[in-house]
Design brief:
Length: 485
């Protein structure tokens, strides 16, 4: 603007004092035109840029090993860095800085929404549920569903959880070899199925849904990591096959919904809550399409992260005998405990173990946001459209915030100041995971019931992990010993 003003002023002055000069006038108009058409973006002050060979390495290696790459970049250049991806016009800022994370998720959350990577790429498979929605639509759905996940409502589900856990634990003999990841995946899926649908779903249906959801996530993760890869998947028909699988999962859920409507039987489960709830403005219920989308999201979010977290928890317990002994003593001292929401979630070593394992191995290993307008924080600034990757796994092991960051020390959460820790396993701000209390209560219940009767001896001293949409173990093989046999 300043350049345009100066050019016009100087030209008018020249014409007024020297007489009209056609060439000067045309030159001035050409300069103004070029300034307007090709004017440069404002100068933004990005964090340190990753470029050259390291950038190429990051883009290629990051497809299958994102944690290794992102952690390496942070170790080399600091808590925040910038990368310009060659396959898109987007700029990426990665950060494991606590204040930066809080600024994006809390203080200025209105300027950020989930990127198209999630809202569009995942949305075409999962629909428009809480996980993929943005803006007013998301807020409307969140307000509608939130009451169903209050502590009081979740407390009513403890008995359903207990029944599924007890049934699953009965499968273990005096000594059993097992892949605990597979076991927890099945158990968590069954718990979600029963708390959502009560007795309206059989085991074969649950298994089919689980298989479909796993296959869809494998493909969608590749699309998320490398958008141009979508074209390759399209050529070979992989996208269409994935969409068909997604349609099948929605058809299964729709059939369960139809069965419930036909029976007119009230089960007091999450499905009943979703059917009965009404929008504040219209007092109308959710459409079947929206109901199905929300239930599919609850299925995925409700079992995937929990199964992953439980695997990490049991691995860490197996590697730390003192922590295991302390846990078992706590359980023995509360042998007659009646499992209620309040008892399960009170301050305890069990809860501290859960928190510490989720610090070291965060199932929600990164959170992405896209800037709606230009923004700045401290010395950094960036334009609208910038993709922000909040690296939660890095934040949880950042030595700036944690003493002995790579060590398993559940006692650190006994600190009265623990609420101020750089700790966000369920996110933060308005989009804090709606199922946090559900997941914590479920994990505490499983841990207490398991270690009251069993011991797990891991065959693995190191846990191989795979970062898809969530961070998951590849396996957790070991031996279960029945202490009561």
């Amino acid at each position: 603007m300043y350049l345009k003003f100066l050019v016009e002023l100087s030209t008018k002055y020249y014409c007024k004092n020297k007489g009209f000069d056609r060439k000067a006038y045309l030159s001035e108009r050409l300069i103004v035109f070029l300034v307007e058409i090709f004017k440069m973006n404002p100068k933004f002050n990005y964090p340190t840029e990753i470029k050259g060979n390291r950038k190429l390495y990051s883009l290629l290696k990051g497809l299958n090993h994102p944690l290794e790459v992102i952690s390496g970049n942070h170790q080399s250049v600091g808590d925040s860095y910038y990368i310009k991806a060659s396959f898109t016009d987007k700029n990426f800022i990665f950060s494991q800085d606590k204040e930066f994370v809080e600024y994006i998720l809390k203080q200025n959350h209105k300027n950020y929404h989930k990127s198209e990577i999630q809202s569009v790429t995942l949305g075409k498979y999962l629909g428009k549920g809480l996980l993929t929605n943005n803006g007013k639509d998301w807020l409307k759905q969140r307000r509608l569903i939130q009451p169903g996940f209050s502590k009081a409502k979740i407390a009513n589900l403890v008995s359903i959880m207990e029944e599924e856990i007890d049934k699953s634990l009965e499968s273990f003999k005096s000594e059993s070899e097992v892949d605990l990841y597979d076991f927890f995946h099945s158990l968590a899926f069954n718990i979600v199925a029963k708390t959502l649908f009560s007795s309206d779903v059989d085991e074969n249906t649950v298994n089919e849904l689980s298989k479909i959801i796993t296959e869809v996530q494998e493909v969608s993760t590749k699309e998320v990591r490398l958008p141009f890869y979508t074209q390759i998947l399209n050529i070979f028909g992989v996208i269409d096959k994935n969409i068909e699988k997604s349609k099948r999962s929605k058809a299964i859920i729709q059939s369960i919904l139809d069965k419930r409507r036909t029976s007119k039987e009230e089960k007091n489960d999450l499905l009943d809550m979703l059917i009965q709830t009404r929008y504040e403005d219209t007092q109308l219920p959710m459409s079947d399409e929206q109901l199905v989308d929300e239930m599919l999201i609850l299925f995925i979010a409700g079992h995937e992260t929990t199964a992953n977290a439980l695997s990490f928890i049991f691995f860490e317990i197996s590697q730390n005998p003192k922590a295991e002994e302390k846990l078992k003593k706590e359980i023995e001292n509360e042998e007659e405990m009646v499992f209620t929401s309040e008892n399960l979630m009170k301050k305890s070593f069990t809860v501290n173990i859960i928190k510490e394992a989720m610090r070291l191995h965060s199932p929600a290993w990164a959170i992405d946001r896209e800037a709606l307008e230009d923004d700045s924080f401290k010395e950094y600034s960036w334009p609208k459209g910038t993709l922000i990757i909040l690296y939660i796994s890095g934040l949880h092991r950042n030595p700036k915030y944690w003493e002995h960051p790579d060590s398993f020390i559940p006692e650190r959460f006994e600190d009265e100041n623990s609420k101020n820790f750089a700790y966000y396993p369920f996110g933060a701000g308005p989009r804090l995971c709606i199922g946090e209390h559900f997941a914590m209560m479920e994990m505490a219940l499983i841990i207490r019931k398991f270690y009251k009767r069993f011991t797990f001896i891991s065959y693995q001293k190191k846990l191989e992990k795979k970062a898809l949409v969530t961070l998951r173990p590849i396996s957790l093989k070991g031996k279960i010993i029945n202490n009561l046999a």
